[in-house]
Amino acid sequence: MLPQAAQYALDEWRCAALPILQKFTGQTEADWADVRAGYMEGLNRLFPAPEGVTYAHVDLGGVPAMRVTPAQVIDGRTLFYIHGGGYVHGGVQGYRGLAGRYAKALKATVYLPDYRQAPEHPFPTPINDTFAAYRALLDAGVNPRTLTLSGDSAGGAMVVTIMRKARDAGVALPVAGVAISPWANLTHSGASASVRDGIDPLCSTDFLNQLARMFLAGELPTHPDASPIFAEVQGLSPTLIQIGENEVMLSDAIRLAAHLGENRVRTSLEVWPGMFHVWHLFGGLLPEADQALRNAVRFLDDALVLAHNHG
Questions:
Q1: Topology of the domain covering 51-221+237-309
Q2: What is the pTM of this model?
Q3: For the segment 206-242, what is each residue's pLDDT rounded down to a tens digit?
Q4: Does 311 score more than 80 pLDDT?
Q5: Which residue in 201, 293, 272 sits closest to 17, CA to CA?
């Protein structure tokens, strides 16, 4: 049983997402840009920005981005945060609350790329935009020893993918990454895709299949850039995966953690009983959201301190 305020926010989140479902089923003639904007307005209303944080729109290598700056930043700390939304319906405006709390707790400047999305810009454009923004941050002078990476859902999968692309391009990796509710396997072959279907209040397997088809636009769901459980992941930075036990993505998040660990990536996995997709958004409304974010910050903080001490 969720606290009353959290249950209300969850119900309202589902209402805010209704136009997305209507767009998929042809019940609305609104274009995707308007559907996304309305959804982001809903998230921003439900999960507002905290006090003591400033927000600005910036450019990262030609990719629009939001910069989130807390009152205190330690030693140039920077967090590159990748929003979710199935590569179709996300946006930075709905993440002012989560990004602001992350920035304050980690004492870091946070950058969120507003990458282009399907169906107008299908695979691999969202991933390429995000990697271009990551490279631009380093080109602008951010010290990789003060750089961390995090993201949720599709953005959680991209935490692994962006580190892989950096490794392969000879670009500096972040000191650590946190993948929140990662959408790690677009084949949805894990047991939870059926066992948890109907339990997760936000994601159904059918909806995820629709998102995957729209994003992939004919590419195979086993492509390593789309599903990191099929990727070569040796040499990546320490990674924390946090997943809700109610999520249809549970099995594949566990599989991603095992895949990383078996390939000698230092990996931590947290499975949160009773939690749903990206419950971290519910900061201040749900104790588990506050605790999960504290754990994420502690993981990144430990990596930053270690990098600083060995600088």
A1: Rossmann fold (3.40.50)
A2: 0.98
A3: 999 999 999 999 999 999 999 999 999 999 999 999 9
A4: no
A5: 201
The reported pLDDT for the residue numbered 84 is 98
* Sequence-separated (6 or more) residues with CB below 8 Å from residue 229: 184, 185, 252, 255, 256, 259
| 296 Cβ contact partners less than 8 Å away, ≥ 6 residues apart | 102, 150, 178, 180, 240, 242, 280
- Residues 5-20, buried b or exposed e (16+ Cβ, 10 A)? ebeebbeebeebbebb
- 34-81 pLDDT, tens digit per residue, is 999 999 999 999 999 999 999 999 999 999 999 999 999 999 999 999
Domain boundaries, the chain: 51-221+237-309
Secondary structure in 3-state letters for 69-90: EECCCCCCCEEEEECCCCCCCC
Q: Backbone phi, then psi, for 272, in 5-degree steps?
A: -105, 105
Angular region, 264: left φ>0, alpha ψ -120 to 50, beta rest: left
The amino acid occupying position 129 is D
Query: pLDDT exceeding 90 applies to what percent of the chain?
Result: 99
Kindly report, residue by residue over 184-197, the tens digit of the pLDDT.
Answer: 999 999 999 999 99
| Residues acting as catalytic residues | 153, 247, 277
Q: Which of 139, 149, 124, 146 is nearest to 171 (CA)?
A: 139
Measured between alpha carbons, how far is 43 from 179 in angstroms, rounded to an integer? Answer: 20
CA distance to 147, 240, 261, 285, per residue, from 97 (Å): 21, 21, 32, 12
Residues 6+ apart with CB under 8 A from 143: 76
Tokens of 35: 């559907």
Residue with tokens 């059918």: 206
